Structures are given as C-alpha cells and as structure tokens.
Amino acid sequence: MKKMTDRILISRRGLIGAACSLAAAPILSPVSLAAVPGDSRFVTIVLRGAMDGLDLVQPYGDLAFRQLRPKLALTPDTGLIDLDGRFGLHPAAAALEPLYRRGELGFVHAVSTPYRDGRSHFDGQDMLEGGGSAQRGSEGGWLNRVLTLTRNPAPAIDVSVTPEMILSGPNPADVWAPRSDIALADDELQMLARLYRNDPAYTKALSDAVGVDAFTDLLRGEAVEDRHGAAAAKLAGTMLRDKYRIASFSINGWDTHVNQKAQFQPAARILSGAITTLRESLGEAAWAQTAVLAVTEFGRSAHENASGGTDHGTGGCAIIAGGAIRGGKVYGRFPGLDDSDLLDGRDLMPTGDVRHIAAAILASQFGISGSALRSSVFPGLQEEARVAFL
Predict the structure, then answer these.
(1) Where is the signal peptide (predicted)?
(2) Residue 29 burial (10 A CB sphere; 0-12, 13-18, 19+)
(3) What is the mean pLDDT of residues 341-352?
(4) What is the pTM of this model?
C-alpha cells in the first residue's frame, strides 16, 4: 500500500492535464488531505445543503418541539433513539448509536457560523469554509491556514476539478477522488503512449493517471458502490493511516424543503456510514488519535413548512467523533423552542459558534495556541472558555 501511495503522488498540473486529455469520467466526492507532524488526526465533513440539526438530534423533551413539527417530530415510542432523556437520535442515524454509547461520538447543539442576515447556501458555505466573521472576509479556507501554523505543508496533488474551499489556499494540499475512471481500453492507452512518447511531461502524466485509476479501483473493491460518503470516508481513512493527518470531504443532500421525512433519511444514513467507515478504515490505533467534525452552513427553520419540509434557518448541530473527543453527550446551551426563544421568531437561536468547536479541536490535536487560531485561522473569533468535549 505504501509503495502504491508513493507511486501516484504526481503534480497538480500533470494530473489535470492527463484527466482532461483522457476525458475521464466525472470525479465524485473529492477528498482533500494534508500531512502535518505527529500522530494526531483531524477530519472535517461539510454537510452541504443545511443539515437540519433539530431532525438529527431531536429535542423531544421540549414540549414546543412537537407543536412546531407535528409531522416530523418523533419520540422514543415512534422510533427516536433516546440519548439522554431530553434529546433523541433520528432512527436513520442508528449506526452512530454504538459510537455514542462508547463515548466516541457526541453532538454540539444550537451552533452556527456568524452568518445571520442571509439564507444563501453559497454565501453560508463560503463563511463556513472561509472561517471569518464576515462574507468574503478571509482568503482561502481555514483548514488551509492551519497548515501555516503546523509548519509542514503537504505537496500538492489535484484529482478533482473543483477543490473544496476549506482546504484551499496558499499552502499545498493533496486532493484525491475515491473514483475516477479512465474510460479507455488498453490498446487505446498504448496508442496514446506511443503517440506522445517524445513528450516526457505528457508521458509521465499519463502513467500517473493510470496509476491513480488502478489505485482507486483497489481501494473501492468490487462490491462498493457508495458514491456519496462511505467511499470518500474509506479513501480518507486509508490515507490518514499513512502519511496524512488532515482530511476533508463533503456530503450533499441536506436541502429538505419538501417531504423531509423521506429526504432526510438517505442523507443521515450516508453520514452515519461515512463516520463508521472512517473508524473502520483508520483502525483502532489511529482512530484513538482522531477527531472528526461534521458541520453545515446553517440550520433549518424550527417550524416545519406546509410541504412537510423545513426552510433555511440559523442554529444547527455539529457532530463530533473519534477517539480524541469525549463523546456520549449532547453538548451546547440549548435555548429552547418557545416563540420567545427563537431567532426572529422562526429559527433555533444559536448560542455557540462552530468556529470555537473547530479551534478547540485544532488546539488539542496539533498544539496550536488559541491566540494564533483566533488571529490567523478564524479572524474575529472571540476567546471562549475551554470546551467540555475534549
């Protein structure tokens, strides 16, 4: 595995050129990775589309919840997995319950980015991944700026046509895809090799691209067809076992305006599968030194709408996992759901900043000072007391 990994480390320009020239199939679920000193590991999962934290971790102990969501609210009698007598886990995320019981997974409720005055997915994701206090207030992604503080940026490789913002920036980071097919037969590949044999750069790019294709086939195996979460998680976990220490990927499908009862379930299962696959791929020793943070651009409205869904909101829920965190609990200061408790009369009031969660984990995992994180990684972030989940 190590030998194969080294063999496919190629330049960003070379691989893009090869991918374009070979008309490779669309690349799915890119995974961004970076190497930093030490054995601690950190994974971010961006939940694109505004994941409904009130559906994933339902405050069934709040009497107002069922009034706000008569069709969506569950109870332990209707399938909700009771967590602590106040909150319950959506049954579609049942695969996460064993991790929660073992203290390897937890939740931080009623959190958000500083994004307040708009409901655009694009602007919300820019703020989430940029890490600043205002729109377009930061250059690149906050996870890329972390690499400056670790003093050991990784060499670059870019298999994706659209690297994610969170790990984009001046520091090089590798980008992989769990699946990229070179849709050419062997004789066609040989013809290309002969045609361009006098072009050393193209010859190398072609050779490396074929190596990537073979490697991703090896990682996927014959039976795996999950193109959303588990495949990315398997690739990330495999890479994190070796030289990499930071990884990031995304899971889409959380924009549930209509018929949320049906739409939420597949996304929740994919997320659950991604986290459990990460644990399996990392193995016990590496998982024990890993922290996972899953976040979304904003929450959804506290009220369900007339279409059986929810609209764009503000406060949401962050998922934390890994052997490096203290799970088994729903953290955060939940404000309640009475009308007077809601933001603008419609949203879960955020009482915490998701950047504080990320900053606390980064400080714990990589020994980065709080002042450096606040000044360089999350501009505008105010100092906050130590979190309880580490």
Answers:
(1) 1-34
(2) buried
(3) 97
(4) 0.81
